[in-house]
C-alpha cells in the first residue's frame, strides 16, 4: 500500500514549484535524470567555461543584420587531433549548462571518448543567456525567434568553430533531444554538407494542431506499468470528475481544491486541462523517479485511499499540489511566466502541439470533455497572449510540415530514436524513414529521451544504444566532408513570413 505520507514525499518536486511546468520541458527532465546520478559521473563543474560567439547574426534573412552574443561550451579532453570527429550538441528550449559536454553518464560523451571526438554545445537563441541584444520582448521574439533562424545560427557557428579550432575536414555529428532532436534532424536536412550524420532522440518532427496522441501515449504508459486495471480505475475517476466539474459546486472545491465555483466554460476547461497536465511530466519521465505512473496507479488501485476512484484522485491531487487548482482559474498560468514565453511563441508560430484530451475508446482521459481541441485552443496563450487564431495556427502547422517534411522527412544519415511509452513518440518517426540511408529505433518500455543516458542494464535500452552507437560509427565511416573552410555566414532560404505584432 502506498501511504499518504510516502505519496507526499514523492510529490515534493511538484509542490516545490508554484505552477505546473509546460508539457515540453526538456531541462526539467534532464535535471531529474542528473539528480539520480552520482556526481562522480561528471567532471568538476568548473572545468568548462562559458564562451561566447560574438558574431551571431540577428536576422539571417538580412545581410545587414546586427550581431549578438551566443553562448557555447566545448570539451576537447577526448579529441584525437586533426581528422577526429566533432560532436555538436544542440540545445533546445532550456538554459545551456556546462556539464552537457562533460557528463560521462551521457551516451554522447561516452561515444565521444570512443571516437576521440571534440564536443561542443550551442545554446538556442532567446533561451538562457543567449538573448539577442538582451531583448526578450514579444516584439523581438515575433521577428527573430524561429526554428529557421536557430538552424542558421548553428550553421554560422559551425563555420566559426571550424576556423577557430582548425577543424577543416573533420566529420561532425549533431545530437539533439526533444525539440533539439527536431533541430538535429532538420540541420542535416537543410545543411547536409555540414554534418556527417545526426542523432534525433524523441523528436516530434510532425507539427500538429491537436496533439491528442500525447494523452494516448500516457495511456500506454499507464497500461504498460500497471495493466488494464489501472486504466479502468482512472476511467471511472475521470468520468466522475467530469460530472463534478459540470456541476461546479462545493464537492469539487472540497475534493479537488478547485479555486472557485467553476461556472464559466473557461473555468471548467482550465480545471480539466490542469488535472490532465499532472500526467504530462509523469508520461515523459517513465518510472525511474519516485513520482511516476507506476506509483500513482498503485495509489489509485488501493481502496484504503478512498472508497471510490474519484475520492482517491482528489486525495492524490491535494497531496501533490497544496494550492487550489488551477491557479487563478487559469490552466495556462505558466505561459505568462517570461521563462516560458519563448517556447509558447514557437508552438503558436510553428508547431501547434496543443495537448488535448484523447478520444480513443481505451483511454481514461476521454471523459474530460472540456479539454477538447476547440476549448484548449480558445483559452490557450496562442489565442489569449499572441492572438493567433485557430485557422492561423493550423496554417502555421501546415507550413512547418511543408518546410521540413513532417513524418515524411527525406534526409539521409539520421537515426530517429523513441521510447515506445513516450507521449511525444506519435509525432516522431516510428518506422523506416523515407530516405533509406536513415534509421530508426523504438525502445520498449522507454519514455522521453531516456536513451540520452548510458544504460548498464541488459535489455531493450542497452540494445537500442548499441544500435545508436553503430549508426554514429557508420555515419563517421561514410563521411565525405570537404577539407576546406566553411563560409563565415549562412543565409537560409526564407519560406514563410514570421507574423508581425
What keywords describe this structure?
501 residues; alpha/beta; eight-stranded mixed beta sheet; two-stranded parallel sheet; disordered C terminus; glycoprotein; AB_hydrolase_fold; protease
Structural class: alpha/beta
Termini separation (Å)? 54 Å
Give the C-level CATH assignment of the largest domain: Alpha Beta
Q: What is the count of distinct domains?
A: 2
Please tally the helical runs, counting DSSP H or I stretches of 4 or more residues: 18
Question: How much of the sequence is in beta strands?
Answer: 5-15%
Total count of strands: 10
Pfam family, one: Peptidase_S28
GO biological process, one term: proteolysis
GO molecular function, one term: dipeptidyl-peptidase activity
Keywords: Glycoprotein, Hydrolase, Protease, Signal
Model description:
By secondary structure, the protein is α/β, with parallel strands linked by helices. It has two domains: 4-32 and 208-397, no CATH class; 42-205 and 405-477, Rossmann fold. The chain is built from 18 helices and ten strands. The chain has helices spanning 4-10, 12-15, 26-35, 107-115, 138-144, 147-165, 179-190, 213-226, 228-247, 250-256, 265-285, 293-301, 309-320, 338-351, 373-378, 381-384, 390-404, 460-477, and strands at 51-57, 67-75, 86-90, 118-122, 172-177, 197-201, 208-210, 352-354, 414-419, 439-443. The strands form two sheets. Strands 1-2-4-3-5-6-9-10 form an eight-stranded mixed β-sheet, sandwiched between helices. Strands 7-8 form a two-stranded parallel sheet. Strand 3 (86-90), helix 4 (107-115) and strand 4 form a beta-alpha-beta unit. Helix 8 crosses helix 12. The longest helix has 21 residues, at 265-285. The chain is globular and about 70 Å long. The N and C termini lie far apart (54 Å). 51% of the residues are buried. Keywords: Glycoprotein, Hydrolase, Protease, Signal. This is Secreted protein. Residues 1-17 form the signal peptide. InterPro entries: AB_hydrolase_fold, Peptidase_S28, Ser_carbopepase_S28_SKS. It holds the Pfam family Peptidase_S28.
